Amino acid sequence: MDLIGRLLGRIPGTKAHAHRRLDVHLAVYTARIREAKEQARRERVLEAILAQDDAPPPPAPAAPIPGTEYLDRTTDAWLAAILRSSFVATDRTLLRTRLADFTRELARWLLDPVSARLSPELIGRQLAHDLELSTPALRHTLEVLAPFAEQVHEEFGGSAPEQRARLLGGLAEGFTDGARRRILDEQKELSVALDRARRTEHEKLAASEARFEQQFADSQLGMCLLDADGVITKANPALRLLLGRPEDLIVGQPLWAFVPEDAQAREVEQACHDAAAHLHTTVLDEIEVSRRDDPVPRWVSVTVRWMSKHDRDTGHAHVVLADVTTSHQRHLRLDQVGSRDDTTDLPNRQCLERRLDDVLDGAGPTDTVGLCVVGLDGLDKISEELGSEVGENLVRLLAARLRGAVGGAVDMVARHDSATFCAVVTDPAVWNRMDELVAHVDSWLGETVHMGKYDLAVKPRIGIVRASHSSVTSGQLLRSAEQALRQSAEPVHRGVFVATRSDEGRHNQLLAELPAAVRGRQLELAYAPITDPGTGRVMGVEASVQWRHPTRGLFSADHLLVLADEIGLDLALTSWILNHSAEQSRKWAQSLGSTAPYIVVNVPRCLVHGDQLVEDVRQVLLTTRAQPEHLRLALNQTGTPMPHGVRAEHLMKLSALGISLRLNDFGSSFQRFDLLPQVTFEGIAIPPGLTSGLGGDSPGHKCSRDITTALISMAKALKLNVTLQGVSTDEQVQAAQTMGATLIQGPLVGPPESAQDVWRRVRSNGQQPAKPLVEAS
Q1: Where in the chain is the domain with CATH 3.30.450.20?
Q2: 159-162: long-range contacts (C-beta < 8 A, 24 or more apart)?
């Protein structure tokens, strides 16, 4: 490494990483040195390299750009084609100016992508979103630009067939994204208009004494009267139905007593007081209200109108509460689709642009606003060879690695396009150490990914750019970032995939049979006990899927489910596991009382990044009538949306339902300890890899013991329960007690057991008498 370090110091551009062929030079020189096995030979190779002229090769001459006459002919043909197929609201002269600019930039991109100001994707996006062109216009655009690209190549050269194909593909991809964004914008505008009309109607109803009194009894809207202190004095039947309570539990309560979220409750309280104090109408949108004996939340709009013409002591308030749950869910879906990337759940380009606009608008002359842009080469090749599902799962994992690599050092991590990510940097201290951040990102993303029988690798390209002055726009900064990425060093190794692990044949066959096993009901649940290390009492169990195979017999299928999750095989098993676990927990609670163990259900990564898991859990609790405290959900880091730039509201919703969350692989795959307080976890699980090092006296055992002790101390400081997994010896049990682990599980505690065996084991703990058990089917 000393030799390579000396060599790096002799190659110009090492610090900036801005020269196009730097990676190639480095790879060649490094290979020469490593081929020399002996130190003396290495020294001679190094001297020979350093004796060469170390000046970088002269830059290639700039590619010629087609003349104005040629570009004008293409622009006119393009304009005529668009006008034949689309109604364009833009002035024809302005439209031609835009198309002329696009034509010039596309020619530049074909001949010298580094110098191009606009990419084909960005041009396609502007055609659909800004100019609002129709789909036939895209077809006519491609009919004009396909021969244009060929003619540019014939007359000027400089573009490979793949480059010309990427131009057309990029235009189509950008157009699709732009059309999608335009539709979402239109849906949002329509939703806002509907909400505005509803709000106006409710304000009119609350302001009219006669209409309010006339509709009070029969209205489908929740309606009530308030006194000057915001206390409900009268409630109509619709409000009683909305809140799920009889009138005697509503009247006499302040209106905000039915709002579970503290901040929103304060908003409602302030609205009531403001309406009485200022004798005006106050409206609040999308306030969550609680319903008695129903965990499903409802959202309402609240309209408060004070009706006294004299003072607050002689009047009352009209309140209209409209159920806007459907509208709220529609807004969430539109926000999710419009601002999040479907594959990674990261903020998308549109969300990134809005965030950059906000940051740039608020930045002063000395403030830092920069971008670290990361391109992942080889993703297309992997998707083509192994399928889109494998490609998408690889992107999800790499996105999680990127979030872990940058951590809380950046303002936002977003997906810029299919193979490019951006991190927004606003901290001057981070910007001053960007070389360290870049090295960290390169290390994390360049590490091999094990996915099924494949070892996958991509080579990241990284560029950085900083806003030079306060007048820079988000579009200009993003274009500079794209150019910086194109100017970054070309990777030596493209994305590769290697079939490895010769013992995967049996797993592949079982994976192929697994969907049929699900349909054929060959799967069943067993429960691995989790005990108190001091008393041995069974406190909980972890649900384990067992496969009763027609020829191989009964065996655990947990490892196959993990593998299926990694490669994107959707088995839709989580709902089944949740239902059976919840039903079993209810039966244990009825039979065993307070000694009934809770059940831990491992959640696949594909379900964690969205609200589907919340809906599944809510539905399970409703249908089984199980108590939420008898269930735990276990997550791992790659499926935990905690790093900066990714939302975790749905995890909060699970906690609000009473479901406890456990974080797996603590200290192994999970390393973002600073983010733990952001999500309400009940406990953490230390993996078997660390547990196996406990109980011995070797330096390795001592190291494992020190690490585990530190992790347990950290968890206890955060008031988290600690489960030590993989416990297989008495020494490890003793170590768990000494270090303060709350719970243990593993081979010594016991393998997965049937529900009946768990019931007998809990009953033998010597606790209260148990009723006969009815096992869940």
Answers
A1: 208-332
A2: 159/110, 159/111
State the span(s) of the chain assigned CATH 3.30.70.270: 352-499
Phi, psi of 282 (to 5 degrees): -120, 135
Between helix 92-111 and helix 120-129 the angle, nearest 10°, is 160
Q: Which CATH number fits the domain 352-499, given the four candidates 1.10.274.10, 3.40.50.720, 3.30.70.270, 3.40.720.10? A: 3.30.70.270
Largest CA distance in the chain: 101
Q: Give, as one character, the DSSP assignment of residue 574.
A: H
Helix (H) or strand (E) holding 184: helix 161-207
Q: Per residue in 369-392, pLDDT tens?
A: 889 999 887 776 676 667 667 777
In degrees and rounded to multiples of 5, residue 670 shows phi and psi of -90, 125
**pLDDT tens digits for range 548-577:** 888 888 888 887 787 776 655 666 788 889
Query: Which residues on neighbouring strands pair with residue 414, listed in sequence order?
Result: 422
Residue 193 pLDDT > 70: yes
**CATH architecture of the domain with range 523-763:** Alpha-Beta Barrel (3.20)
pTM of the model: 0.41
Alpha carbon of residue 510 to chain centroid:
30
Distance CA 109, CA 103 (A): 10
Express each pLDDT in 49-93 by its tens digit: 555 443 334 444 444 455 677 788 899 999 998 888 777 777 888
Give residues with Cβ within 8 angstroms of 565, minimum separation 6: 604, 605, 606
Beta strands in 588-729 (DSSP E): 598-602, 631-635, 660-663, 683-686, 721-724
Q: What is the pLDDT of residues 82-126, one digit of tens each?
A: 888 777 777 888 889 999 999 988 988 888 776 677 888 889 888
DSSP annotation of 368 reads -
CATH top class, domain 208-332: alpha beta
Any idea what the Cα angle at residue 286 is, between residues 281 and 288, rounded to 5°?
115
CA-nearest of 174, 472, 114 to 349 is 174
Calpha distance 657→669 (Å, rounded): 27
